[in-house]
Amino acid sequence: TLVSKSSNQTIDFDIEAVKQRNASNPVFYVQYAHARICSILRRAAGIDDVQAEGMGMNAVAAQAIGETYDLSLLTDPTELQIARKLNSMSDMIASAARDRAPFRLTHYLEELASDFHAFYNNCQVLPSEGRPVDPELSRARLAACDAVRRVLALNLKMIGVSAPTKM
């Protein structure tokens, strides 16, 4: 909460809001996006929580996605928004460092989590009973999910917040 505000902004700290385990708590919202992606990757790889913990999420993702995928299959507006948001990360970090404005990282994380949730609600990543997904498109979407997971984890680490793999 403290890093989400500019240093010249007055802070009203609400301990009850920080305790909330729902979308009204920005930390929970971002961590939930990370955990949801980890769950998707575990399901795609056919790996349970214990196996995933032993392997690490990068290995789980590699198994889930496979060696090749075609990102040009990602054409839905929510997929393109994720790509734009991921592409803006290095400029955002540079400006946050230059201007001594760490709150930009938290805003970026909230926006990326929101973009991911919109994508997830709009685009089927994995096939389900009666709802097939083209395997190539599924791999591309899994690769997009993994890119979001990695960026969420990196930025959460930079602000000193954990990136849980399950919640």
Structure write-up:
- This protein is mainly α and 167 residues long.
- It has one domain: Orthogonal Bundle (Isoleucyl-tRNA Synthetase, Domain 1).
- Helices cover 63% and strands 0% of the residues.
- It is built from eight helices and no strands.
- It has helices at residues 15-19, 26-45, 49-55, 57-65, 77-87, 89-98, 103-122, 135-158.
- The longest helix has 24 residues, at 135-158.
- The protein is globular and about 50 Å long.
- The two termini are 20 Å apart.
**Tell me, what is the CATH class?**
Mainly Alpha
CATH topology: Isoleucyl-tRNA Synthetase, Domain 1
User: What radius of gyration results from the CA coordinates?
Assistant: 17 Å
Largest sheet: none
Mean pLDDT: 89
Give the count of structural domains.
Answer: 1
Q: CATH homologous superfamily?
A: Isoleucyl-tRNA Synthetase, Domain 1
Q: Could you state the order of secondary-structure elements as H and E?
A: HHHHHHHH
Could you estimate the helical fraction of the residues in percent?
55-70%
Number of helices, counting only DSSP H or I runs of 4 residues or more: 8
Q: Any idea what the CATH architecture is?
A: Orthogonal Bundle
Shape: globular
Let me know the number of strands: 0
Low-confidence stretches: 1-7, 10-15
What is the CA-CA span between the terminal residues?
A: 20 Å
* Structural class estimated from helices and strands: mainly alpha
Bin the strand percentage: under 5%
